Amino acid sequence: MSTSTTPAPPPGTQDPPRATARPDPPPRRSGWRRALRRHWRLYSLAVLPLLFFLVFRYLPMIGNVIAFRRFQPGGSILGEQWVGLRYVRMFLTDPTFWQVFRNTLWLGALTLVFCFPIPIVLALLLNEVRRRSLKRFVQSVSYLPHFLSIVIVAGITLQMLAVEGPVNHVLGWFGHDPIRFVQEPGWFRTIYVGSEIWQTAGWGTILYLAALTTIDEDLYEAARIDGANRWQQIWHVTLPGIRPTMITLLILNIGTFMAVGFEKILLLYNALTYPTADVVSTYLYRAGVESNSFSYAAAIGLFEAVIGLVLITSANQLSRRTVGTSLW
Questions:
Q1: What letters, b where the CB count within 10 A reaches 16 and e where it falls short, cover 167-181?
Q2: What is the pLDDT of residues 230-255, one digit of tens each?
Q3: End-to-end alpha-carbon separation of the chain, Å?
Q4: Which helix (H) or strand (E) holds 242?
């Protein structure tokens, strides 16, 4: 029985294979909806923090309108009468305001100059310590003041610097007369900056020690092979490795430049030290709460907030253009 075979067509004459028709893909959901549906448990953790900022940070901003309206206690919460820039002109022509403004700049600058680099230096020194027991002891001693209340820190400072306090006793051993540190205006800035260093240096060191752990050890080995000593390794490897953390904290510190510690100054200063200790925040407290000039205090507070916004925005832009690191 013979079978007939159909000869195959010569190459190049075959019909191209037909493309299999595929059904249209279902419409995709938007990215944020899909992420919200998939990770809703994680997003639910952000509800309470967002409510906190909404209630205690953003809604109170509505009260800034009383900087341009006359506010009377017991009246409307948004003021009784529109007065425009009256309160702004009042504090711009008030010599007391410019005195407290200069004090704020002085304390903010001294705090930034001394309190910012000390945690970096302390972290670099602790990173070089090889004995774990000594390293833990120094860390515990330096961290402890951060967990103390500001009231306790201010109380310790006042007791140490009192006329009959330990500092004056030590000065008496060398034949020096007692110094009224708390009552003399010239000593207030030194006292405030010193207490800030003592209270905040250890906590800032934690952040830099955490940043030091992210530096690759191969970089140090390569630097040693190239003949770099310890100082050169710190300068060329360690400092560039923690530079993003340094820039971020510097920008945040510049943003709070005008917001010098209100609570500590209020606890440390007195009427005798007003010439150097009175800052914008304490002046606002006396003008707004004690004197019931709420609109005047709101105008000064709005001026302070605008300056802080300009400072942090400028620092962020400058850091982005020069270093390449920024907050946003």
A1: ebeeeeeeeeeeeeb
A2: 889 988 899 988 988 898 888 888 88
A3: 85
A4: none
